[in-house]
Amino acid sequence: RAKADGGNCVRFFDASLDAQMREQQALLVALRAAVHEAQFHLVYQPQVNARTGAVMGVEALLRWTRPDGVSVSPGVFIPLAERAGLMPHLGTWVLREGARQARAWQVTGREVRVAVNVSASQFSEPSFVRTVQEVLASTGVPGRLLELEVTESALLQDVARVRGVLEEIKALGITVALDDFGTGYSSLSYLHALPIDLLKIDRSFMPSAQRPVHTILSAIVGLGQALGLHVIAEGVETQEQQDLLLDLGCERAQGFLYARPMSAEQVDAWRQDRPVRR
Ligand code: C2E
Ligand code: MG
Ligand code: MG
Ligand code: MG
């Protein structure tokens, strides 16, 4: 680090910082091995229409289980993979695996759209659109059964390029969602400048007993509606949150109240057990 910062400057030795850096380094070594040894799998979390109970889709979420059986949280390893330049590769694996599963559900008559997270570095790859096209072609999944979730940070690039990429994605029939909406740093102007279908409201805006305010939640739902976008709330854990969302006119929801992320087989069982309301 000292070297990267420009050379022969003297640094105070900080034992805890040193331990932290060693830990990160060890994790990175393990992560590189994991990429080669296929220690990853996907879990799927249902997205529902909270009013009708209909299943709107599932979000594919990446899991890493180390050979010692320990699971590492994506909140830890994804930023690390991103910094280490591993994300375009790992992200392509996720896309392919998510598409393969969407196709498997389609051919067994349990059609459901699969939403896949796309990292900023993956989105910036010049080959990104080609990769998506190749994955559709090789898995045989129609674009309408795929959704790509991008974050505001992925969109912080040349706006003409971003618009071009999103238009090509949409031309394939794929849904484009803006993930963790409200937590990024970008301007709101892209919301109508870009072909986005769906806003995913970050779960930090969900009111709770500790934080009972719903001003921002209500403003975001209103913004999405005013722009003609679909809006989905993530991190819905309680009946109260669901009722508030329905009052605000936000019917789509994802969260532990409905289902945790689970294996494809568990999704099948969960769907089968679901009473259909009208
Ligand atoms: P995200 O895309 O916003 O995904 C939603 C996260 O919220 C997931 O965490 C999910 O398990 C969690 N969640 C869902 N419902 C609830 C709830 O009711 N309560 C609480 N407390 N949490 C809930 P997870 O799986 O740990 O993923 C964390 C983040 O890691 C994701 O946030 C996403 O940014 C990233 N991530 C996961 N998989 C991938 C991937 O394949 N590619 C990329 N680029 N990022 C991924
Ligand atoms: Mg997501
Ligand atoms: Mg999200
Ligand atoms: Mg989030």
Automatic annotation (TrEMBL):
Start and end residues of each EAL domain: 24-275
Top-level taxon of the source organism: Bacteria
Protein name, entry field: EAL domain-containing protein
Protein's organism: Deinococcus sedimenti
